[in-house]
Amino acid sequence: MIFIGLDDTDNLESRGTGNLARQIATNLSADFRVVGVLRHQLLVDPSIRYTSHNSCKSVVLDADGKVDLAALGERVRLIMLADFQPGSDPGLCVARVVPDTVIEFGQRAKREVLTQGQARELAAAHSILLAGVGGDEGGVIGALAAVGLAASGEDGRYVMIGNSRDLAGLQPIPVVLATGISAVQTVSGQPVMEGLVQSDKIRPVRRRGRAVLVVEQSGDEWVPLKLG
Fold first, then answer.
1. Within a 10 A sphere around the Cβ of 74, how many other Cβ atoms?
2. Which tens digit of pLDDT belongs to each residue from 51-60?
3. pLDDT at 157
4. Is it the case that residue 43 has pLDDT exceeding 90?
5. Treating both helix axes as pointing N-terminal to C-terminal, what angle do 116-125 and 100-108 enclose, rounded to 10 degrees?
6. Which of 44, 70, 82, 134 has the most crowded Cβ, counting Cβ within 10 A?
7. At 63, which CATH number?
8. By the 8 A CB rule, do 3 and 58 touch?
9. What is the mean pLDDT of the chain?
């Protein structure tokens, strides 16, 4: 897997980072299999500058063989530069091998105030590509955190996976699974194998490296829950 982390690419009037992450994923889909785009919630604290909810995004790719990560990073950086938003402080991270210390950094970013220096020092120690793409480059913190959280396999909500965003209305479970979602289950973990799901805005969570749609029953249909 290759993990791309993005953060602080927007302002209050612009498109969100999720929109940009999906654009990047679509661009890269010409050369890689895109596993999905994830939203990760970080700590909300008065001392942290953020646009709305302090979430960062990751793009997860499945790639066989050798990949020039520096070239991939430059490709993504140019896409980000072409859509730079005034007042934003974008950060970019690209990694294939993600050590436990980076996963831990992502988990800490959900509960602690971290610094650019900490992010840059950690990335440099493991030869991980981490770069600012404008402004004061504060987004490097969330970008590295996004990579760690995505690599953990246990964090985030998919804002793009397969063609799930094309679904609308009530859809049978097999149709939902055919989009690329790995499983449909209840909050208690019971698998849901049949029935109809309200599919207008399904947002699976990442669990054990898989996309899992958590639902609850409402009358004769299943309603997705917004978790992660």
1. 15
2. 667 789 999 9
3. 94
4. no
5. 170
6. 134
7. 3.30.70.2200
8. yes
9. 91
Tell me, yes or no, whether 141 and 167 share the same domain.
Answer: no
Mean pLDDT of 168-194: 93
Query: Domain of 122?
Result: 2-158
Side-chain-side CA neighbours of residue 226 (13 Å):
5
d(CA 2, CA 23): 17
Give the Cα separation of 120 and 127 in Å (integer): 10
Q: Name the domain boundary from 158, 186, 207.
A: 158
Q: Please give the average per-residue pLDDT across 157-177, as a whole number.
A: 93
- Report the predicted TM-score, pTM, of the whole model to 2 decimal places: 0.91
Residues 21 and 58 in one domain: yes
One domain for residues 87 and 114: yes
Share of the chain above pLDDT 90, in %: 75
181-186 — which CB contacts under 8 Å span 24+ positions? 181/211, 181/212, 181/213, 182/210, 182/211, 182/212, 183/210, 183/211, 183/212, 183/213, 184/212, 184/213, 184/215, 184/222, 185/212, 185/213, 185/214, 185/215, 186/214, 186/215, 186/216, 186/217
User: What pLDDT shows up at residue 48?
Assistant: 64
> Could you give the CA distance from residue 222 to residue 122 in angstroms, rounded to a whole number?
43
Residue 132 DSSP code: E
Would you state the structure tokens that stand for residue 4, as one six-digit string? 């791309």
Residue 11: per-residue pLDDT: 64
- Is 74 within 8 Å of 13 (Cβ atoms)? no
